[in-house]
Amino acid sequence: MSTELIKVTINAKDFQVPKGSRLIDVCRENAFDIPSFCYYADLALQASCRMCLVRIEKMPKLQTSCTIICTDGMVVTTQSEEIEKAQRSMLEFLLANHPLDCPVCDRGGECELQELTFDWGNLEERFTEKKNYHPEKYLSPMVANDPQRCILCKRCTRVCDEWMGEDAIEAGNRGSNTVIGTYGGWLNCSECGNCIEVCPTGTLLDGTYRHQARPWELTQTISTCTYCSDGCQMSLGSRADELMRIVARDRYVNGLNGEFLCIKGRFGHPFVNHEKRLRTPLIRYQKGGKLIPATWDEAIRFAAQRLDAIAEANGRDSIAVIGSPRITNEALYSLKKFATEVVGTENYAIADAFSLTAFFDNLGGPLATHRDIRHAKTIVLIGGEPEELQPLTGKQIRQAVRNGGAKFILINSVRIRLREQASQFIHLRPGTEDAAVLALFNGDDDSLAAQKLGIDTNELETARKTIKETQGEVVIMFGAELSSKAQAVVAQLPYVFAGEGRRLLLHPLPLFNNSVGAHDMMDGDKSVFELLDGAGESIRAMYVAGSFLPMHMRQNEDALRRLDLLIVQELFETETVAFADVVFPAASFAEVDGTFTNNDALVQRVRKSIEPVHQSKPDWMITAQLAKELGIDFGFEMSASAVFREIAERIPFYANLRYPQLKDESKPVQVKHALAPQRDLSNEIDAIRSVVEGMDESSRKIEETPLVGHELFKLGTLTDKVPQFHLLAAGNPKPETFRISPLYQITIDGNLKREPAAAGGML
Ligand code: SF4
Ligand code: SF4
Ligand code: SF4
Ligand code: FES
Question: Which atom of ligand 1 is nearest to the CA of 169?
Fold first, then answer.
């Protein structure tokens, strides 16, 4: 938007507003309430509900403020008898087919239609004709539908198309028979539930929480998602000690994601109160024996004595400490403190899918926020699949292209769905991503790179030219495919492409909610693989918070068996817990206070929504108790904020931060990782070149586009506890009836009871 200011008069008050501002936004920003249903910021205009009417001087009729761009000297009235009469008539039309039974509607209490109707009061209903009747039904395991409550604002269809790129729902039929429906009667989409979130009425509903609680019974707690590295802000709705639902509804929370959440953030929470949560500490007194329930005192004492004995017999470096990228900064910081100050070893590592060390050590530019991505002029994505692994980033890319006109260069070996938005798609042979980085860095290796990538050298020149000609911000993103050497080169690309009027920003795409925080808190010289390799030899004991990933275990199947002592703190009996000698039940993200650092380097609060279930405790508290038993008092005094205060004192780029500064999720705080100067990368380039020279030129390119949900619907330790995810993982079979919960199709163990019904059929 322009920086030039113009004068607008609203209800006899003068305002200076940026040229190009939309009238409805200006009115709302200045506290003049404008009712609206179809308008939704940053979506294509619909202009169909006619609720946002205003009077503009010198214009003949009332105008819809959502369609008006302010002009200099405009004089506007937002409230008058004439305007209210027109709005009341519109509302009466909207209610013509709408049942007036809010008490039985699941959206009752947080419905925009109900709110407006009740706010105005005395609304006449002159339509006496029979209302159209449509039965309630399910559209998918996640989305329930009560079609007769629809006011056809089409927020849902626009969000599905513009945010998700899916176009899975559409308005069908005509005139007063129009309803929102699916193609083929059943949704085969990414099940994000954003259509539910933005629906202003009770038409699209959360099928997993339906009829379980009323909104006013829920305590809303603003927190940060525990799944991917995008760090969406969300409101956890709890009743007593049960987490009932998660929403991003803007009346409760106003974070970097607006009202966006993906399937995992919105529906993946039932693990919190799941019956399989670990209930008490457990001790295996003898190898090969059973894990026996114990008190906290017994388990802490047992673990401390065994650690002490192992350090005494084999030295301090025989103990390793492993942190998970899923737990809070406070938990990770405490673990590193435990390793270095209690055990006295540098044998600590993060059990993540890939390390960010080379990237941050060579960082040549600031990290891009999700807001930066939305407003970027050029976006380059090397590897990765954000629509499945970091869905908010995927949505921002889509909107940057569709609503902002950004150029999008996609460099990938797979025809991922975001390809539809790409202005240039460089389709690589699988495993050759490093060759693309080599070519981006300079033009010297174009022929070698193009030969190995299986593309024309022009494609590489075009990509570099697009970046070099950009005026504005360029965001460079990368996924898990790059080697650490290539990560170092990408981190220095801001120096390579710097130019007047151009700013280069970087956006790593790690997999977990606190991958960046884990790097900040616990980055060290050792890798998980190195420590697992030493298990049973130089490493005799391990203290693990969280679990190893399947990829770690696959390559070291026997490692944990070889240890003299394995201490694990976890939520569930994972594969790692199966080898443990001591198990501490840990509290989930919904039960603790703390912080996560997302892939924008935003430090965001995690807040306790319910008390820790059973006997579980926050990870940092368990570590502090174990340290105390070993003679070192961390001095955290039972408070996560005390841990964070120490983080701010010891980690330079977190300096001076305190929880109160992080309290407003609408103004997130970005930590500034130290920038590395431009450096000579010839060693890295030589190393990458020699790997590229050995790359196979005969491998076939992957032509298939991966199915929606192929990553999102995978059952992991947490999503395995959500019955609806089992249906999706089984291919989202279309049920024989849409009237009752689709869960009738699975057994209590999550297995399908029958063959899926054939596709096609009723709406
Ligand atoms: S759940 Fe998401 S992808 Fe599916 S129809 Fe709704 S908005 Fe579209
Ligand atoms: S289903 Fe909801 S969001 Fe979609 S058109 Fe109807 S009222 Fe609007
Ligand atoms: S995009 Fe990532 S952070 Fe946002 S809701 Fe989904 S999993 Fe959570
Ligand atoms: S909000 Fe303006 S016409 Fe619907």
Answer: 5
Q: Is 246 in the pocket of ligand 3 (CB under 6 A)?
A: no
Q: In a 3-state reduction of DSSP, which class is residue 380? A: strand
What 8-state DSSP symbol labels residue 757? B
pLDDT given for residue 518 in this prediction? 98
Q: Which atom of ligand 3 is nearest to the CA of 234?
A: 5
Per-residue pLDDT at 1: 65
261 CB near ligand 3 (under 6 Å): yes
Regions of the chain short of the pLDDT cut 70: 1-2, 123-124, 754-763
Q: Is 192's C-beta closer than 6 angstroms to any atom of ligand 3?
A: no
Q: State residue 761's pLDDT score.
A: 35
What span, in angstroms and rounded, lies between the C-alpha atoms of 491 and 496? 10
Interhelix angle 296-314/619-629, nearest 10 degrees: 60
Q: How many C-alpha atoms does 96 have within 13 Å on its Cβ side?
A: 11
Q: Is 644 helix (H, G, I), strand (E, B) or coil?
A: helix
Residue of 28, 34, 38, 53 to mutate, ligand 4, most atoms within 8 A of C-beta: 38
Per cent of the chain over pLDDT 90 is 91
Q: Is the CB of 269 under 6 A from ligand 2?
A: no
72: its two tokens: 């200099």
Ligand 3 atom with the smallest distance to the CA of 224 is 3
Strand extents, DSSP E, 430-555: 472-478, 502-508, 541-545
Per DSSP, what are the bridge partners of residue 137? 145
Nearest Cα to Cα of residue 229 among 368, 431, 358: 368
Give the number of the ligand closest to the Cα of residue 192.
1
Give the pLDDT confidence score for residue 707 in this predicted structure: 96
Judged by its nearest atom, the ligand closest to the C-alpha of residue 155 is 2
**Amino acid letter at 384?**
G
Q: Which residues of 313-334 are buried (b: 16+ CB within 10 A; e: fewer)?
A: eeebbbbbbbbbbbbbbbbbbb
pLDDT of residue 762: 33
Closest CA to 435 of 482, 393, 502: 482
User: Which atom of ligand 4 is found nearest the CA of 67?
Assistant: 2
Taking the centre of ligand 4 as the mean of its atom positions, its distance from the CA of residue 203, in whole angstroms, is 19
Looking at the DSSP bridge assignments, the partners of residue 75 are: 9
pLDDT of residue 755: 64
The amino acid sitting at 227 is Y
Q: For residue 140, what are the CA distances in angstroms to 144, 185, 621?
A: 7, 9, 41
Instruction: Give the amino acid at 733.
Output: P
Residues flanking ligand 4, CB < 6 Å? 36-39, 47-52, 64, 66
**Is 560 close to ligand 3, i.e. is its CB under 6 Å away?**
no
Q: For position 127, what pLDDT does the model report?
A: 78
Closest CA to 343 of 308, 314, 313: 308
Choose the residue to mutate in 140, 150, 155, 166 for probing ligand 1, maximizing ligand atoms within 8 Å of C-beta. 166
3-state secondary structure 58-81: CCCCCEEHHHCECCCCEEEECCCH
